[in-house]
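Reminder to self: tokens first, then the designed residues, so the page reads top to bottom the way the pipeline ran.
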């Protein structure tokens, strides 16, 4: 399969790049090794942690706002399961929204790890589909680094 652009990574940068390219009339493929788009921020980091924080603030009465997916009228005490159910609901909504954006923009999404075969070909998965692209954008995010000479435990 041949594309104008292949984007490696379905996080914020990859989503924006794919959306911008399709807006310019380009034929785009996006490859991500996670079943849900959005990267770490949407799936394991910012969105889940802030959802749990905001849920706790709302349930403690510190903030009065509606929480979609949490029904406070049925009982006075919330359980950890209630918190996690709401967090999963928010994440699922975000993942659905991102997948829908890719579908609306006619970006073809491939799940799996992309590996370069040459400067214009990507193999998805160990024995998977081979994609050919005029341009390839690497938007795979980053990982935190802890240099050995930095005292991370120091106050």
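Designed residues (155 positions):
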């Amino acid at each position: 399969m041949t594309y104008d652009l292949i984007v490696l990574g379905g996080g914020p940068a990859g989503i924006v790049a794919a959306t911008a390219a399709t807006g310019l009339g380009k034929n785009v493929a996006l490859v991500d090794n996670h079943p849900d788009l959005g990267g770490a921020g949407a799936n394991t980091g910012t969105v889940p942690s802030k959802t749990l924080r905001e849920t706790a603030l709302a349930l403690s009465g510190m903030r009065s706002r509606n929480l979609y997916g949490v029904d406070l009228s049925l009982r006075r005490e919330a359980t950890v399961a209630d918190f996690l159910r709401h967090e999963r609901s928010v994440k699922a909504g975000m993942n659905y929204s991102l997948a829908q954006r890719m579908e609306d923009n006619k970006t073809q999404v491939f799940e799996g790890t992309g590996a370069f075969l040459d400067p214009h070909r990507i193999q998805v998965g160990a024995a998977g589909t081979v994609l050919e692209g005029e341009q390839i954008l690497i938007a795979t995010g980053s990982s935190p680094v802890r240099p050995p000479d930095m005292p991370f435990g120091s106050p």
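Residues 145 and 151 are 13 Å apart (CA to CA).
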